[in-house]
Amino acid sequence: MVNPISYTPGQDPMQPRPFRVVRAIRETADVVTLELEAQSGPPLAFQPGQFTMLYVFGVGEVPISISGDPHKPARLVQTIRRVGLVTEALCKLGRGDVVGVRGPFGSHWPLEQARGGDVVIVAGGIGLPPLRPAIYHILHQRQDYGRVYLLYGARTPADLLFPEELKRWQHTLAHAPGASPVRVTVDRAEGGWDGAVGVVTSLIPVLPIDPLRTTALMVGPEVMMRFTISELRKRGIPEENLYLSMERNMKCAVGFCGHCQYGPHFICKDGPVLAFPRVRDWITRKEV
Amino acid sequence: MPSKQRKPTLAVWKFASCDGCQLSLLDCEDELLQVAGAVQIANFLEASSAVQPGPYDLSLVEGSITTPHDAERIQAIRKSSRFLVTIGACATAGGIQALRNFADVEEFTRIVYAKPEYIKTLKHSTPISEHVKVDFELRGCPINKGQLLEVISAFLHKRRPNIPQHSVCLECKARGTVCVMVAQGTPCLGPVTQAGCGAICPAYQRGCYGCFGPQENPNTVALSAWWTLLGLDEAAQQRAFRTYNAGAKAFSKEAERHG
Amino acid sequence: MQKGPFVLERSGLLQLLQALKAKGYLTLGPTVREGAIVYDQLSRLEDLPIGYTDHQEGGTYRLRRRGDEALFGYNVGPHSWKRFLHPPILRLFRARKINGGFEFEHEAEALPNYAFIGVRACELLAIRVQDQVFLGGAYQDPHYKARRERVFIVAVNCTQAGNTCFCASVQSGPKAQAGFDLALTEVLEGDRHYFVGEVGSERGAEVLGEIPHRAALPSEVAQAEAKVAQATRQMGRSLATEGLKEMLYQNLEHPRWEQVAARCLSCGNCTQVCPTCFCTSVEDHTDLSGVAERTRRWDSCFTADFSYLHGGSVRVSTKARYRQWLTHKLATWQDQFGMLGCVGCGRCITWCPVGIDLTEEVAAMRGAHV
Amino acid sequence: MGETPKPQQTKTIRVGNLARVEGEGALYVRVKGSQVEEVRLNIFEPPRFFEAFLRGRSFAEVPDITARICGICPVAYQMSSCQALEAALGVQVEGPLKALRRLLYCGEWIESHALHIYFLHLPDFLGYPDAVRLAQDQPERIQQALALKKTGNELMALLGGREIHPINVKVGGFYRVPRKAELLDLRDKLERAREIALQTVHFVGGLDFPDFAPDYTFVSLRQEGEYPILGGRLVSSRGLDIAVAEFEQHFREEHVPHSNALHATLEGRPYLVGPLARYNLNFDQLPTAVQAAAREAGLGPVCRNPFQSIVVRAVETLYACEEALRLIAEYEEPDAPSLAITPRAGEGAGCSEAPRGILYHRYRIDEQGLITEARIVPPTSQNQKMIEEDLRQFVAANLELPKPELTLRCEQTIRNYDPCISCATHFLRLEIEQAP
Ligand SMILES: Cc1cc2nc3c(=O)[nH]c(=O)nc-3n(C[C@H](O)[C@H](O)[C@H](O)COP(=O)(O)OP(=O)(O)OC[C@H]3O[C@@H](n4cnc5c(N)ncnc54)[C@H](O)[C@@H]3O)c2cc1C
Ligand code: SF4
Ligand code: SF4
Ligand code: SF4
């Protein structure tokens, strides 16, 4: 993996670099993946789990995780759900449009530590894109990892992201034939769905893993992560092996603006990926 | 702005008000022609006799609803407006004329008019949002012209206007003004009032009088407790909350406590 | 270079100002305005609050006459040096659209070289705290850095304590320890009026070399030290720092938070006057002509926007906001930056419009807990 | 289109919504044959009850509240209320504080007159619907107009804190007075504004004006030694000369059922206030340079053509720039920003020259300083009857005009007065449906 470029002093970390949209892929009704290339300068190397700040000219800037392959940094890939004004503007971009990019920022998934053991990846909704680079990396070095599972929950079948890849991963991630590493569930079955219905945490109790040698990575709404953690703890996975990616309001991503504080952590630099013990005392509290 | 595209149309409407908020647009001397270049002023009676029929992309509505006729008129305006922004304390809170809401309108009419039987008006002065859906409310008595331009350019660029809803105190401090309440014991509404004016009152050595209405999280009870320590009597406290935003809920509720 | 303590006569201070100006510094310091002592340009000694002192209480500040001609006989006012190093509003960039993309406009920022006159010990520490935030991490804020690097600091030790300060208990004062170019202690003794000084840097020594001064006598040094010691004794408030972080972490659900929230206006004044509070909002604008601009302005954890995530604020209640503020200052800051976020200047107590006092809140929580 | 009225044919002119006036009004004229049967300036701006809710407020709040009657001339409201209340409280603002008030008022005159000349009135003369479209053909002219207007606004923003509803005006003076240096900073801009104002005088002097010169009764303030802005005595072109406190003994408002407007009369007759009145009654008080400019623009010491009010406004704008420069040059910072005031019971009247004419206020206060009675007579309501008279005369004299042009001329006739309907309506009778 390429090391992240560090910020060169003298340059303002608040100033974006222009990137051109080379492809815009409509994933679902409200999710778009943008493939971006730097207009000048080096491509943006990153580690799985990191994010960038994407700036739409004059509209605003928001944190978005990188969803592409860390081994192919020439193209910066980011997947965005339209929820408000900036994300809406991002989702409207097409080939040739220019966005500003700052980053990559933040901590990354513990893929080094996870080597040699099992990996459980739990994603809820738009939580899958930040985990995809980790999957790519594992696929790249599949032999380094034991059993790998992706548990993914979406609202409806139509909201499932990357369906083709999910199918592919079913084979490529498998440690043994017929292992069924990708397990998907939806809140509401629609349109002839014959898969699982229910919350993603319901998939955890039956996973064949070696708990003490398992690392879990999760991204989703805070409640979902709380329940996931409790289920994983029930399976006996040590808490220091549980990793989650947190979200807070972010104005700068470099630790200056103060907005992303979460207890003692700055989500932008200490996170977004944090080991569970670091948030244990905070995650059950309201309004932190 | 690409000139080939059809320019968005702008309409300005007036209800019960002093005209000041509309004038704020004409007071944007440096930007007025730029505004006129970016939008097509399709209906702005105070400024132009050329009136084009709707629908309009952006309607700015000044003034409060005080007559049955106006209550109907605003419905029609809403129907012909894609985006409707209310401007000023009258339109967003009922304005100073909402003081009638706490009194007997008939008595008011008798005081002002020699032949009160000719005057027919609604009992209450109400904000536009009580009648129709409003897309954005711009506060102030009058509105701040910088904020007005911000709302118009945000609309043109389809972004959220940067209009903070926090207290005046943040602006006051950014400006470097010395707090008049702390340093002089002058009662100030700044802590419970929404920013936007630039904290001018404290900068001119007086307490804020609340013309931008309540901030997002106003603790009027705690403020008035402090005012009591500063020696402000109940009647004066009630009057302080009954001015240009008397109809705004947080202020009208607080005023009632001092009745 | 002057090694030991030196003495500067009262008139020497004017010469110091003039020497700094001659070197191209914009001299800033305390002056009376709008009924308080604020920081603004100083050109003459008469611009200083001669003979004034300040009486401070929670939510109250009053200027008083001292009855002598002291130049620095007061404590800190509503301003702090952060207005100059970390300005309340700053444009970060402008950009305009060009053939499908956009380009940034670079305008060289004409920054004055600031000389801060009369920086108190707590304020020196506050500057160090902000250094840690803006320069101490993986990223550096070039705007802060550019200002910070050029600043010349003349510290002044407190010889009387304010009623709302508690620097002694957080070990930030009243004597300036480090981080200054020159440090002075004002001594008024009978009809003598002079400063006992200390050099803190090469630059300080160089400037000092240009103005008349002499080595201090041991008695003069003793006089100065006694004055500073007196300030320590007078300190109006205190904050017990031992186990503070743990105490707060254990009390995140203490009923006291609700009680203080009932009084708190969520106006944000405490965060604005605090010399260490650094939070900002970053806003992207466009004007009518389509030129985009990014500005950064002081923000406050007391606003709803501060913790906004799509769908609403994380910290909706005033309780959660006050708790965030206080625990950040006194507890999480220690985890983040290895130091307290509070230097004990007392500004948040004086300039809270309703006199909320963090030392009192901490004491109440300790009382219930310990 | 170009029809001429046949005898006995009824013709109505209706303008549903008057444009380029401040506030909301409509015009209705009915002509039968050569007889103008009815002229109605219909005002449907809703009532706002200021006099009523001023009762019980502290005297100190009045200037802020009355400002809200009109966003176009808030300073006028503040000044008239302050003067009236100061009379009631037995204090008098003099010296630099008074000069600052005059200076603030100059700002409002410059701003308001520039607005009216270029944005509301001029488009009529040049055949444009508005100044924005005029700017497409004559960008420089409108840019200059904006610069002029902006200078007025800057003066108000400096002295008042902001342009509309200034926050710095106080009974007894100001909350904060400017330092001399702050005022001097405006000097260059005012000099530039003066140049633009002078060009404006020349330019509008050359416009085409219909022949029309009714025999008005002019009413304005007058005070020896200065062109009237603040205070003075009330005088008329028919020999009236009274103290402001005597206003209500001579001027009456009638609430007439058949009309939509409350008619103000002076000794039973309609009268005219505003720039024409001020000019005609105070030409001698104008500085020679301003008089000369007026003459160059074709005005004598007397001007009775309301269409030429645009020229008079330009002359007054020039005067306001001159006067502002003089006041700034002579300004000395006062010791205190305001006079100390102890509330006491009393009654007082005040009058000042709003850009549109005299604005009269009277208050009664109790010993705690609370208002017990308030009375406000704004210029537009005083001119109401005169506007209708003018329309009647003008239509009668121009019946041969094609209807669209006649309509336009009627609108222009109304705009001659720069009527401020927002001001007027706090006491106008309205035609409004029954409340539910
Ligand atoms: C580290 C991190 C990684 C993220 N990765 C992704 C991703 O890969 N894909 C994706 O679709 N979304 C991601 N998000 C969430 C995304 O940033 C928000 O959906 C987005 O900021 C909403 O902006 P908006 O203007 O469209 O929404 P609005 O509701 O209009 O929000 C207004 C403003 O509030 C702030 N804001 C609102 N919601 C959030 C939020 N959740 N996080 C931070 N700031 C917020 C932003 O400044 C935003 O502009 C991530 C958030 C974080 C913190
Ligand atoms: S003067 Fe008013 S607005 Fe300013 S900080 Fe004090 S209380 Fe807030
Ligand atoms: S928290 Fe209060 S006492 Fe501490 S440094 Fe900030 S303002 Fe000063
Ligand atoms: S503690 Fe005081 S200053 Fe801070 S937000 Fe609350 S009321 Fe305002």
From TrEMBL, chain A:
A GO BP term, please?
Answer: pyrimidine nucleotide biosynthetic process
Cofactor note from UniProt? Binds 1 [2Fe-2S] cluster per subunit.
Q: Which Pfam families does UniProt cross-reference here?
A: DHODB_Fe-S_bind, NAD_binding_1
The record's keywords, sorted A to Z, are: 2Fe-2S, Iron, Iron-sulfur, Metal-binding
Recall the GO molecular function terms of this protein's record.
2 iron, 2 sulfur cluster binding; flavin adenine dinucleotide binding; metal ion binding; oxidoreductase activity
> Which residues bind [2Fe-2S] cluster per the record?
C252, C257, C260, C268
State the Gene3D superfamilies in the record.
Answer: Nucleotide-binding domain of ferredoxin-NADP reductase (FNR) module, Translation factors
Which cofactors are named for this entry?
Answer: [2Fe-2S] cluster
Which PROSITE patterns is this protein grouped with? FAD_FR
Keyword Iron among record annotations:
yes
- Residues covered by the FAD-binding FR-type domain: 14-111
**Annotated signal sequence range:** none
InterPro entries assigned to the protein according to its UniProt record, in alphabetical order: Cyt_c3_hydrogenase_gsu, Dihydroorotate_DH_Fe-S-bd, FAD-bd_FR_type, Flavoprot_Pyr_Nucl_cyt_Rdtase, FNR_nucleotide-bd, OxRdtase_FAD/NAD-bd, PyrK_electron_transfer, Riboflavin_synthase-like_b-brl
Indicate what this protein is called per its UniProt record: Oxidoreductase
Q: Which organism is it from?
A: Meiothermus hypogaeus NBRC 106114
From TrEMBL, chain B:
**UniProt keyword annotations, A-Z:** Oxidoreductase
Q: Give the domain of life.
A: Bacteria
A molecular function (GO) term: hydrogen dehydrogenase activity
Which Gene3D superfamilies does the UniProt entry name for this protein?
NADH:ubiquinone oxidoreductase-like, 20kDa subunit
Q: Name one Pfam family in it.
A: Oxidored_q6
Q: Which residues form the NADH:ubiquinone oxidoreductase-like 20kDa subunit domain?
A: 18-154
EC number in record: 1.12.1.2
Q: Does the keyword Oxidoreductase apply?
A: yes
Report the protein name in the record: NAD-reducing hydrogenase HoxS subunit delta
What is the originating organism of this protein?
A: Meiothermus hypogaeus
Taxonomic classification, please? Bacteria, Thermotogati, Deinococcota, Deinococci, Thermales
From TrEMBL, chain C:
What GO molecular-function term can you cite, just one? Answer: iron-sulfur cluster binding
Keyword annotations of the record: Iron, Iron-sulfur, Metal-binding
UniProt domain 4Fe-4S ferredoxin-type: residue ranges: 253-285, 333-361
Superkingdom per UniProt: Bacteria
Q: Tell me any Pfam family this protein matches.
A: Fer4_22
Q: Which PANTHER family match?
A: ANAEROBIC SULFITE REDUCTASE SUBUNIT A
- Protein name per the record: 4Fe-4S ferredoxin
Q: Which organism is it from?
A: Meiothermus hypogaeus NBRC 106114
Q: What is the lineage of its organism?
A: Bacteria, Thermotogati, Deinococcota, Deinococci, Thermales
Automatic annotation (TrEMBL), chain D:
GO terms (molecular function) for this protein are: ferredoxin hydrogenase activity; nickel cation binding
Gene3D superfamilies annotated for this entry? Cytochrome-c3 Hydrogenase, chain B
Q: Which domain of life is it from?
A: Bacteria
Residues that hold Fe cation according to the record: C73, C423
Q: Which residues bind Ni(2+)?
A: C70, C73, C420
Q: Does the keyword Oxidoreductase apply?
A: yes
A Pfam family of the record is NiFeSe_Hases
Instruction: Write out the residues that bind Mg(2+).
Output: E51, I376, H426
Alphabetized, the UniProt keywords read:
Iron, Magnesium, Metal-binding, Nickel, Oxidoreductase
Question: Which region is the signal sequence?
Answer: none
- This protein is called Ni/Fe hydrogenase subunit alpha
According to its UniProt entry, this protein's organism is Meiothermus hypogaeus NBRC 106114
